[in-house]
Write a structure and sequence with these properties.
globular; 11 helices; Nucleotidyltransferase, domain 5; Actin, Chain A, domain 4; five-stranded mixed sheet; 3 domains; binds magnesium ion
């Protein structure tokens, strides 16, 4: 495989982020692909989009063009196609079961699996919905559940559980139009939290079971994994922008000042106002008064950190509480030992993992995309989704090029199981 250029664009609610990466050929004797290297990035304001939908085609195309042009200039390349991360309430996922009879004296072949996976994509769908992705969750050989790779095995009946992600057809068509109008081809669409999973989860997280919670600007997106496969996804129309809004209203300050205040002094747990222990929290250690500029008044006022947290914490609790109630769990939450991985810009708020642990009752950690070669400024939860697209893209292109042995991202300790599995399935489909 020669060097490849991979480009992804995250159509986020607070920013459009385009990333371009270069992948180099793996050494002949290596079973690993080297980690992609980010060679260009561009960020633009998400004008022309609302709740993940295109509401003004011209503006949307221009926003895409703004981000891609910056990234292209930095990378010194001209792009033709993009992997695209999308969000919105119109995206839905559900499991579909498909099955195939196999003669018992015959080993299961890639062609059998391919036939099965393709069967799943012919499920009856309302005409206004389009399948954007299918992820195998498990294979079942007769009564034996939990098989991840059935090739070469024997059975009378091969069944598969496939997680199918669908979206409103017109929503996809309009995003596609905006991408085309900006001068690009849409290579594949991925729901944002699934894209982010490629950059912040490792195979252990997915195998043991975990929930990825991506708290962005106007949405919080979740992808939950168990036994190496996706079992649920969810998009909630609440995020960091709502926290900013609450601060703006609660303290009668402008949204601009509320955003600054949140980023500089915000925290998600009230006990953090007085006792902070981690180094990253040390800036907040002293509960000294914080100056704020009230709307319509010339005078500066002060508030203490505890008051600020008393505005932020209930909103974060509401978001976690809603997710907790809405998510389907395949098993007791305690049986998701890898717990919760928080990512997205709002996950940078001190104390947020502690709050998640209190509400869900399982361990929580922050997911930082640090498995690609990139500048430190991108090793930041805000970039989990565009970097995840790059990792997905490098696996996808590698599979399309017939490189079937991999799926593990060399150099990095993270080896996305879902990715390696999807990669293998893709290879089978391409055979
Ligand atoms: N240090 C910080 N503390 C608290 N919140 C932060 C911090 N940095 C960024 N945020 C918040 O993160 C949010 C943006 O996150 P992100 O960049 O992941 O969003 P997005 O991907 O554009 O949106 P979405 O995922 O909803 O489509 C904003 O609300 C911003 O205020
Ligand atoms: Mg996002």
């Amino acid at each position: 495989m020669k060097n490849q250029i991979i480009a992804g664009i995250d159509l986020g609610s607070s920013k459009i982020a385009c990333m371009i990466a270069k992948t180099s050929a793996p050494p002949q004797d290596s079973a690993n692909n080297p980690a992609p290297e980010i060679i260009g990035a561009g960020i633009s304001e998400p004008k022309g989009f609302s709740n993940g939908l295109v509401v003004n085609l011209e503006l949307a195309a221009q926003s895409i063009k703004n981000a891609t042009s910056l990234a292209e200039t930095q990378a010194g390349v001209k792009l033709s196609e993009l992997y695209i991360a999308i969000t919105g309430a119109h995206i839905k996922g559900e499991s579909s079961k498909v099955s195939l009879s196999i003669s018992p004296d015959k080993e299961i072949t890639p062609a059998d699996v391919s036939q099965l996976v393709q069967q799943a994509s012919t499920v009856d769908l309302p005409s206004h919905r389009t399948i954007i992705h299918s992820f195998p969750q498990e294979f079942i050989l007769d009564d034996l559940h939990g098989i991840r790779d059935p090739i070469g095995m024997n059975a009378n009946r091969l069944q598969a559980s496939i997680y199918i992600v669908t979206a409103t057809s017109t929503a996809i068509q309009n995003i596609q139009k905006a991408i085309n109008r900006a001068g690009f081809k849409a290579r594949e669409f991925l729901p944002q939290p699934i894209a982010a999973s490629y950059s912040v989860l490792d195979s252990n997280d997915q195998e043991l079971g975990c929930m990825l919670i991506d708290i962005g600007g106007e949405t919080t997106d979740v992808a939950a994994f168990y036994n190496g496969g996706i079992y649920d996804t969810l998009s909630l129309g609440l995020g960091g922008a709502d926290i900013t809004n609450d601060i703006s209203i609660g303290l009668s300050i402008s949204r601009y000042h509320a955003e600054q205040l949140k980023i500089k002094h915000g925290a998600a747990r009230s006990d953090l106002a007085f006792s902070l222990s981690s180094p990253q929290d040390s800036a907040n250690k002293h509960s000294s008064p914080i100056k704020i500029q009230s709307l319509g008044k010339d005078i500066e006022q002060t508030i203490d950190k505890k008051s600020l947290i008393s505005i932020i914490a209930p909103r974060v609790e509401e978001i976690f509480g809603l997710l907790h109630r809405k998510l389907k769990y395949p098993t007791d939450l305690e049986l998701l030992p890898a717990g919760i991985v928080l990512t997205g810009g709002a996950a940078k708020m001190p104390g947020i993992s502690g709050l998640a642990e209190r509400i869900f009752g399982i361990p929580a950690k922050i997911g930082i995309p640090n498995t690609v070669q990139s500048l430190n400024q991108y090793k930041d939860p805000s970039f989990a989704t565009p970097i995840g697209l790059i990792i997905y893209g490098s696996i996808d292109k590698s599979a399309s090029n017939g490189n079937k042995r991999n799926g593990r991202m060399g150099k990095s300790s993270k080896a996305p199981l879902l990715s390696s599995f999807s990669n293998r399935v893709k290879s089978w489909l391409l055979e």
